[in-house]
Design goal:
The structure holds two protein chains of two kinds. In chain A, a hairpin with an 8-residue loop joins strand 5 and strand 6. In chain A, helix 3 packs antiparallel against helix 7. Chain A is of the alpha+beta class. Chain A contains nine helices and ten strands. The two termini of chain A are 22 Å apart. In chain A, strands 2, 3, 4, 5, 6, 7 and 8 form a seven-stranded mixed beta sheet that branches. Chain B folds into three domains: 73 residues, no CATH class; 135 residues, Butyryl-CoA Dehydrogenase, subunit A, domain 2, CATH 2.40.110.10; 151 residues, Up-down Bundle (Butyryl-CoA Dehydrogenase, subunit A, domain 3). Helix content of chain B is 44%, strand content 14%. In chain B, the strands form two sheets. Chain B has a four-stranded antiparallel beta sheet, with no helix packed on it. Chain B has a three-stranded mixed beta sheet with strand order 2-5-6, covered by helices on one side. In chain B, helix 6 packs parallel to helix 8, helix 6 packs antiparallel against helix 10 and helix 8 packs antiparallel against helix 11. Chain B is globular, with a radius of gyration of 22 Å. Classes of the chains: A alpha+beta, B alpha+beta. Chains A and B meet through strand 1, helix 6, helix 7 and helix 8 of A and strand 1, helix 7, helix 8 and helix 11 of B. Strand 1 of chain A pairs antiparallel with strand 1 of chain B.
Chain lengths: 369, 390
């Protein structure tokens, strides 16, 4: 049945996060961007809202709430409305934990999920993106070669969120034998693995508030038990779709931040004797923002819904991410233009959103819903 | 619960609509090229198809709500063809106006007529408050004078609801709707319009010359002119809030047909379209197609959302404008883009793609252009009146 109505619980999560994003996250966004750091306090505060831990089954110490990609999509939109970088930082453990919850063996769940049920934020991240201009999730350069009972991982990763503090990485690699989605495998790699080098923190255009780093995997040997899903491997489609959906939700939240900032500005700013919003050119930018934000939201929900049903979300997630990347860039661009010269000044957040939008659009895997 | 999956009852209904639409599509080219003919009220094949409305019998509260499923059915119909239907529905836009504004007696009297709606004039389109057509009371009769164009179902309708002013100096407040039956002396159907697309559709131009109608033909019978505001006018404009998602759906059905055809032809020619690879793993043509598909999907969802709000008794004025603006722009981009992707095959009249390109174009114009929708939406977002944001 086609329905656009969140459940009562989902509406509650959304409302709580909307307030948290405005009161707790937004005020920190500028400083985190300028200093390229994220305070532990905000990560812990976000963690205590239970976004990850509640969906982990009780047997592993979690809250036992139903696993819901749709709820996670709603949460990400709100957090990213506060700040996209802090949203990614706060939910980066989901990029590690959710794939384990969905596709891990019992042993893997038992070992790793309890890390994410405590009172404090625990960093662990998904490592999918690679530092190559021709990066493609279906054509990864990081490879996993079978050796003895385990695997040898070689390659490079980039934009691994909180790599400076993550205890583990979920490294996505191409198995030598198979192509496309079927060739995707993921391996649980502890930060002290022999042959794993964590690069110094990256200096990026946007999303500077989430410290990220590259990984260099120089023949990292892992055991058979490190392969996510065990001998059966993983559903590569689901992993990529989940990550694309999460990014779409972040871009949606960022776009809403731009609109809600540009709109009152356009009403207040006087030029030629009247508010600039009273000119159709400016007013139509604002209309288009709202039209595209609605568009993004339904595409993202649709993709979250496919994931929630366990259906193949390859198509819906591709459309949602691609659309959100195009639309959010346009919205941030127009939002900056609404502010004119002030949009270029770092006293206003719009230039930050403009950089973040460009950055988000080229990412592929950092999170999961 | 947020859900985008159709139920089995939904699918049964939409499959039936699509099956009929494919039959109707066989006649699409003929009526496009013979625009002086009208498609029949029922296709010869109709006897082999039970009426799709009979499939509503088994629907439950777990199925997709009425407004949403109706829009999906509209999309299914125009996916076949804009004008040709297995069975032509009764009634026109004027019937909706009669239901909205007529007294119970008026509704009972004219309910069985097919009524067109005549608003647009040679000198006024989107600015429907600029109506020049006049109605002057003379004894117990109104005398109507003026011209109307772009009257949908204008040739075949039994009568028409006409917007005319009873006092030009009163602006919008002076505009009233009158019901005029065909055959009334002084009411001439001047011609059928010759159009870019939807050629099989009945679009007429009317002339009223000293056309005398009974005083009781004023819809709602309210002859007063409000001193302030435009309350009555707003009431009339409300009709549009309900029809905008429907118009969005009409365009989207044709855009979907264009995408389906383009995908099929590209794949036949060896160009694969996949949802997995990034921009380096896919041809430029495939990437273009995927972006068009994203536009389609986005426009479709905004349209269904507007209807879903209505079904759940939530305000949807903004959303009606959002979907009309989104779909109007999307269907233009999609059909233009599909022709680009198929090149010579796209422009050939051997196929229907060039026809869909022509047919969809009107949906970003009638029932409020994309620009009017953006204006309405901007006023709502900014809290501006029509004076503050012109």
């Amino acid at each position: 049945m086609i329905s656009f109505g969140p459940t009562e619980e989902q509406a509650m999560v959304r409302d709580t996060l909307r307030e948290f994003a405005s009161k707790e996250i937004r005020p920190l966004a500028r400083e985190c961007d300028e200093t390229a750091t994220v305070p532990d306090a905000i990560l812990d505060a976000a963690w205590q809202l239970g976004l990850v831990s509640t969906q982990i089954p009780e047997v592993y110490g979690g809250g036992g709430e139903p696993r819901s990609p749709i709820t996670n999509v709603l949460a990400l939109e709100e957090l990213a409305f506060g700040d996209a970088a802090l949203a990614i930082a706060a939910l980066s453990p989901a990029g590690f934990a959710m794939p384990i919850l969905d596709m891990g063996t019992d042993e893997q769940k038992k070992t790793y999920l309890p890390l994410f049920t405590g009172e404090r934020f625990h960093a662990a991240s998904l490592a999918l993106v690679e530092p190559s201009p021709v990066f493609d999730a279906l054509d990864l350069r990081t490879v996993a070669e079978p050796k003895g009972d385990g695997f040898v991982l070689s390659g490079r990763k980039s934009f691994v969120p909180l790599a400076d503090r993550a205890s583990h990485f979920l490294v996505v690699a191409r198995s030598t034998a198979r192509e496309g989605f079927a060739g995707l495998d993921a391996f649980i790699v502890p930060r002290d693995a022999h042959g794993l080098e964590i690069s110094p923190l990256e200096k990026n255009l946007g999303l500077r508030g989430v410290p990220s780093a590259g990984l260099v995997l120089d023949r990292v040997e892992v055991g058979r038990a490190a392969r996510l899903g065990g001998d059966a491997g993983i559903d590569g489609r689901r992993l990529v779709a989940s990550s694309r959906t999460a990014l779409a939700a972040v871009m949606l939240g960022l776009s809403r931040a731009v609109m809600e900032y540009a709109l009152p500005y356009a009403k207040d700013r006087i030029a030629f004797g009247e508010a600039i919003a009273r000119r159709q050119t400016v007013a139509f930018w604002l209309s288009d923002m709202r039209i595209e934000i609605d568009s993004m939201r339904w595409l993202t929900w649709q993709s979250g819904s496919s994931l929630e049903k366990g259906a193949d979300a390859t198509r819906t997630s591709h459309l949602a991410r691609q659309y959100a990347a195009d639309a959010s860039m346009k919205i941030a661009d127009d939002g900056l233009q609404v502010l004119g010269g002030h949009g270029f000044i770092r006293e206003h957040p719009v230039e930050l959103w403009y950089r973040s939008a460009r950055t988000l659009g080229v990412l592929e895997g950092t999170l999961a819903v | 619960m947020i859900d985008f999956e159709l139920t089995s009852n939904d699918k049964k209904l939409l499959d039936a609509v699509r099956t009929e639409a494919l039959v109707a599509r066989q006649y699409a080219r003929h009526y496009d090229e013979h625009e002086h003919e009208f498609p029949p009220d029922e296709l010869p094949e109709a006897k082999d198809f039970p009426n799709v409305w009979s499939l509503f019998a088994g629907r439950t509260a777990d199925d997709t709500s009425m407004g949403v499923i109706s829009l999906l059915m509209t999309m299914g119909q125009t996916w076949g063809d804009y004008s040709v239907r297995m069975r032509r529905g009764k009634g026109g836009l004027g019937n909706a106006a009669l239901r909205a504004a007529g007294t119970p007696e008026q509704q009972a009297k004219w309910n069985d007529l097919t009524l067109a709606m005549a608003i647009t004039e040679p000198g006024c389109g989107s600015d429907s408050a600029g109506v020049q057509c006049t109605a002057v009371l003379d004894g117990d009769e109104w005398v109507v004078n003026g011209e109307k164009i772009f009257v949908t179902t204008g040739c075949r309708a039994d009568g028409v609801v006409v917007w005319a002013t009873i006092d030009k100096s009163a602006g919008r407040a002076g505009i009233k709707s009158f019901l005029i039956e065909k055959g009334t002396p002084g009411f001439v159907v001047a011609h059928k319009e010759k159009k870019l697309g939807i050629r099989a559709d009945d679009t007429a131009a009317y002339v009223f010359q000293n056309c005398r109608i009974p005083r009781g033909n004023l819809l709602g019978l309210d002859e007063s002119i409000p001193r302030q505001g435009s309350g009555g006018f707003r009431g009339v404009m409300k009709t549009f809030n309900m029809t905008r998602p429907g118009v969005a759906a009409i365009g989207l059905g044709m855009a979907e047909a264009a995408l389906d055809f383009t995908r099929e032809q590209l794949e036949k020619a060896g160009a694969r379209i996949e949802y997995g690879p990034g921009i380096h793993g896919q041809s430029a043509a495939a990437q273009k197609f995927l972006r068009l598909e994203g536009q389609f999907e986005a426009a479709k969802l905004t349209t269904l959302h507007a209807a879903w709000l209505g079904d759940n008794r939530q305000p949807n004025n903004d959303e009606a404008s959002i979907c009309k603006a989104k779909a109007g722009a999307a269907v233009r981009e999609i059909t233009q883009g599909c022709i680009e992707l198929l090149g010579p095959l796209g422009i050939s009249r051997e196929h229907l793609l060039e026809k869909w390109f022509r047919d969809v174009r009107i949906t970003d114009i009638y029932e409020g252009t994309g620009q009017i929708q953006r204006l309405i939406l901007a006023r709502s977002l900014l809290g501006y009146t029509s004076k503050e944001l012109k």
